[in-house]
Amino acid sequence: MVKVTQCFERNPKLTHEALQRARHHIGEFAGVIGEREDLPPDHPRVRVAIATLLALVEVTMQQFVADEGAHSFNEFYAANLQVAHDLLGR
Q1: In which residue ranges of the chain is pLDDT below 70?
Q2: What is the structure's pLDDT at 28?
Q3: Helix (DSSP H) and strand (DSSP E) numbers for the chain
Q4: Which of 22, 29, 40, 49 could bond to 57 as cystine, CB 3.0-4.6 Å?
Q5: Residue 62 · residue 38 · CB < 8 Å
Q6: Alpha-carbon distance 33 to 8, whole Å?
């Protein structure tokens, strides 16, 4: 059985591709966040929200790969989202 880290080690472009896809999807959220906040997609508030989400995805991906599949990506993401909420909510 091939471990997750072995997949990424054998194919370093996989991490890059995963992050590129995340950037693409997060970029799509700019319109949604802008609508919700009644702001244009290039407003600083929207851009900071997108940058924060992208940083969370990157950290989550690193944790998920290092974890060898003991936890799901969604579990790590939810935990990291809570950490960001706790930090930024102060």
Answers
A1: 1-5, 8
A2: 81
A3: 4, 0
A4: 22
A5: no
A6: 32
Q: pTM of the predicted model, to two decimals?
A: 0.68
| CA separation for the pair 71, 7 (Å, rounded) | 17
Amino acid in the structure at residue 18: A
Rounded distance between C-alpha atoms, residue 32 and residue 46, angstroms: 9
Distance CA 53, CA 79 (A): 13
> What is the predicted pLDDT for the residue at 67?
85
Token pair for residue 79?
């935990």
Q: For Cα atoms 64, 20, 34, give the angle at the middle one, nearest 5 degrees.
A: 100
Q: Tell me which residue of 85, 59, 60 sits closest to 73, measured CA to CA.
A: 60
